[in-house]
Design brief:
about 190 residues; two-stranded parallel ribbon; 2 strands; binds zinc ion
């Protein structure tokens, strides 16, 4: 019984990763759908870099998701359904924390470094790629995975953990992956 509940919770977490991909790719980036509340917040997240929707909104979404997924799942499958919904909602919270952390702190370990390369390739190289934030799974399935190489970060949007406060440039430990793109470099080049 405990084993099947754990499996249901793991499937719930996996279900969230698919939702994470779909919500980000289509509600966040498809021009036809982008006027939705998530899309509006997401466009602002991209253009301001350090902007995140208010935590109160995210708590409301968490409660709503618990009801929307939990109620039918419990009605259909009892405790197993509750475990599935709990896994889904818990992994949504993990996603929110990881995503914010990717912007605010340097990564720890291989996963932390991978997650930042993957996500900032999406932000600064090609927003049509790497929609998954916690894993590359659905990008691989749907053909939107791109292996990041050097990531040019616009000055204005540079993450605080990436900058060396002494030099103002990229910290040496990140210099193999990230480079600063000075403001209006492209405009100056094309004007010349
Ligand atoms: Zn982001
Ligand atoms: Zn995005």
């Amino acid at each position: 019984m405990t084993g099947s509940l754990a499996l249901a919770a793991a499937l719930g977490a996996l279900t969230w990763t698919l939702l994470e991909y779909c919500i980000h790719r289509w509600l966040g980036h498809d021009r036809r759908l982008r006027g939705n509340p998530f899309g509006v917040e997401h466009v602002r997240h991209h253009s301001e870099g350090n902007y995140f929707a208010a935590t109160s909104k995210k708590i409301m979404v968490t409660g709503l998701a618990a009801i929307v997924f939990g109620a039918p799942a419990v009605a259909l499958a009892g405790a197993t359904g509750a475990a599935w919904a709990a896994g889904l909602v818990a992994f949504y919270v993990v996603y929110e924390l990881l995503h914010r952390r990717e912007h605010t702190h340097a990564g720890i370990g291989a996963y932390g470094r991978w997650a930042r390369r993957h996500h900032f390739h999406h932000h600064f190289v090609d927003p049509r790629k790497n929609h998954g934030v916690t894993s590359p799974l659905w990008d691989l399935v749907f053909g939107t995975y791109a292996r990041p190489s050097t990531i040019p970060v616009p000055e204005r949007l540079c993450m605080p953990w990436l900058r060396d406060p002494l030099t103002g440039g990229i910290r040496t430990e990140h210099a193999t992956t990230f480079v600063l793109r000075p403001a209006r470099a492209g405009a100056a080049a094309s004007a010349g």
